[in-house]
Amino acid sequence: MHFGGILSQRRSRIWVGVIVFVAIAAGLTWWKSGEDVRRVNAACDAWLQDRNMLRNALLETDEAIGRAEADHAARIGPYYNDRDETVGQLATWYMRGGDATKNLNRDSESSLERAAQSSLAESEGGVATLVSYVKSQEPQVVADWLTEVSARFQGMDDVCLAAARRS
Fold this sequence. Notes:
By secondary structure, this protein is mainly alpha-helical. Helix content is 84%, strand content 0%. Helix 2 packs parallel to helix 4 (111-136) and helix 3 packs antiparallel against helix 4.
């Protein structure tokens, strides 16, 4: 009877060990499977932090375009309320774009993470082009590009929404 009790205790310990191992393995698998979503959410947090500044710069650019077109002007620069401030906001956002990108794994196989990387790169390129257009292009060219930049930003917003739904 004493020998049988020892075997029973060993079996119980083995089962407890197996259950603990399975629980740990399941937890690690669950944690690992959500890494891409956590990285994209971190990138989205950085994106959202400066999004209002960016939207304000786009709104100001749109208003400058409207005023320049109403005056049949060749350039929109003089039609900003404060062109230097608006260009500064765009440049600040462009420099901070790396804050969002640094959260992502460039070697990831996750379609969500690749979409975030692509959307951020497209947005950064769009802002860089917009800054150069504000300085040198006619209102209609800037207006057309403003529409493109807005679509690129919407792409990143969509990625952030998808990540939020998966978390």
